[in-house]
Design brief:
Blueprint lengths: L1 H33 L2 H30 L8 H29 L8 H14 L4 H9 L4 H22 L6 H25 L17 H21 L1 H9 L4 H36 L11 H41 L1 H4 L3 H28 L2 H29 L2 H26 L3 H6 L3 H20 L6 H24 L3 H8 L3 H8 L1
Helix pairs in contact: 1-6, 1-10, 2-3, 2-4, 2-8, 2-10, 3-4, 4-7, 5-7, 6-7, 8-14, 9-14, 10-11, 10-13, 11-13, 11-17, 11-18, 13-15, 14-15, 17-18
């Protein structure tokens, strides 16, 4: 009975999350029609980059350290690391705000300095939610973060839409950021109070500060790794911000299309990656070779990684094939004629293969980062350093040659190389290429995807070119029917192992059964 209730609760939370993201998606479509491309470019590129840099560099390294398998005696040291991230982030926020306001080209928008200060401050404020966040994840309350972020995002979006209707300036985004960060911190502490075990506490007494040299060294390694990964992940934003290779209006179109594409990444990949990072980190001991891990745990992780890679590879192929035929129609429905007649459709078509490689990279790296030792982390950092520099140079060159499409091309190359590193590590860890072979689609699957993709492309050439609502409707019907056929045949071509895995995409439940 408890298992049935848990599964029901999981599905209920997932459905709630999808509904909230759908509301946010529709609200953003309204903002695109209401606000100028220049304003959207400043918010979604310049200000969002400032916020993300402060937050990610301060938060992600410590999350990786704290979510690894540890003993109860190590919890006070981990807690100290979490709280020490707050003063570090405050110093980082002040420094970057000065750079954003004084050193960079300022847009012709009111309240820009205030917006920079608020976005950076929100990145610091959200770190006060890290102690309850890490505590809840270590207690396997993996759905709590999903709900917190979804509700905060929804209320932020509603605030921005309501205020932007009367004031199409930076002010709605300033207020929306404060609403999100305040709710994010408050709800996390409320959940901690409701779910904590008696006697547990996460308020640290700094007079008892004690961090082992091993933890400090591992944290430093993850900080360096996070800096390099941040450059690789948001390299195009840094190039646009610091080198001004495209105008703010072009940045607005690029950011709008990127955010539309990133919805697929966030909904389809992000929470799966976070959950399975925790799964691999808890199942396997960091730094130990595979022959010293438990045999059952090793086999479970190998099968899980192979099925995850296969799932994301199939998903990415379908998105890429259908994105070529439906990019313009998707932007027409979402953002109106202005977005559909701009460079948006061309950008969205190139974003589809980028989505495919993002899915594979996210899964392979979550296993990579969850299991490698400190020495392997350092070696990985050394490999990323020259590659990060080359990636930034490539982004600048390709953007000069191909415009904003150049940023997508550079990102695809970036992801491909990271996939190579992480899959090579997985093959070495498991002693063979079985995981890689497991991820490859079979011939019947490739054939049906190719045939239905060609059908959708022919439909685009014949029906969409008619420039009529009836033609667009028929094009949608053709795509919908062929997509259903693709999904049915893909499912029938799978073995029982994959089908069982797909029906139970809950890593914590899998871990409980294994143990």
């Amino acid at each position: 009975s408890s298992g049935i209730n848990a599964e029901y609760g999981y599905r209920e939370h997932e459905q709630f999350q999808v509904v909230l993201k759908l509301v946010s998606f529709l609200a953003n479509g309204y903002l695109i029609r209401l606000l100028s491309n220049e304003l959207l470019g400043v918010v979604y590129i310049r200000l969002s980059l400032l916020y993300a840099t402060v937050q990610i560099l301060s938060r992600e390294p410590l999350r990786k350290v704290c979510l690894a398998k540890h003993t109860p005696e190590q919890w006070p040291q981990l807690l100290a690391l979490i709280w020490l991230s707050i003063p570090f982030s405050a110093m980082l926020a002040v420094s970057l705000t000065l750079v954003w306001v004084l050193a960079l080209e300022a847009p012709a928008l009111a309240h820009y300095p205030l917006a920079c200060a608020v976005f950076a401050a929100c990145g610091v404020l959200e770190l006060f939610a890290e102690p309850p966040h890490v505590y809840l994840l270590n207690k396997h309350f993996v759905r709590s973060p999903i709900i917190v972020e979804a509700v905060a995002n929804l209320l932020q979006t509603v605030s921005v839409v309501l205020i932007a209707h009367y004031s199409p300036t930076l002010v709605p985004f300033i207020i929306g950021s404060l609403v999100y960060s305040g709710l994010y911190v408050m709800v996390y502490w409320i959940l901690y109070r409701l779910k904590r075990n008696k006697g547990d506490k996460i308020i640290y007494e700094f007079s008892k500060l004690s961090v082992t040299s091993e933890q400090a060294s591992l944290t430093l390694s993850f900080i360096k790794q996070t800096v390099l990964k941040q450059v690789l992940t948001m390299g195009e934003d840094y190039v646009m911000t610091f080198f001004s290779v495209v105008s703010f209006a072009q940045q607005g179109v690029f950011s709008t299309v990127s955010r539309l594409a990133s919805i697929v990444i966030r909904v389809g990949f992000k929470h799966v990656e976070d959950s399975y990072y925790l799964f691999f980190a808890q199942m396997l001991r960091r730094g130990l070779p595979s022959d010293q891990q438990g045999r059952d745990a090793l086999r479970t992780c190998k099968d899980t990684l192979g099925n995850l890679l296969r799932l994301n590879a199939l998903f990415g192929l379908v998105v890429t094939v259908y994105g070529l035929s439906y990019a313009r129609l998707a932007l027409l429905i979402y953002g109106g004629d202005a977005l559909a007649e701009s460079d948006g459709p061309w950008l969205l078509q190139w974003h589809c293969p980028y989505i495919a490689v993002c899915g594979i990279n996210g899964v392979s790296e979550c296993f990579y980062f969850a299991t490698m030792s400190q020495i392997e982390v350092e070696n990985y950092n050394l490999k990323l350093l020259p590659f990060s520099i080359c990636f930034l140079m490539l982004s600048a060159v390709l953007s000069y040659l191909f415009g904003t499409v150049g940023f997508i091309l550079a990102n695809i190359g970036n992801m491909a190389i990271r996939i190579f590193f992480s899959l090579r590590y997985a093959a070495s860890y498991f002693g063979g290429m079985d995981v890689l072979y497991r991820s490859l689609p079979n011939v019947p699957q490739l054939m049906i995807i190719g045939v239905c993709g060609a059908t959708a492309l022919l439909s685009k050439l014949v029906l969409e070119s008619s420039n009529s609502h009836l033609g667009d409707l028929c094009h949608i019907i053709v795509g919908g029917l062929s997509l259903i056929l693709v999904l049915m045949i893909l499912w029938e071509c799978e073995d029982n192992s994959f089908k069982t895995f797909f029906k139970s995409l809950n890593p914590i439940k899998t871990r409980t059964k294994t143990e």
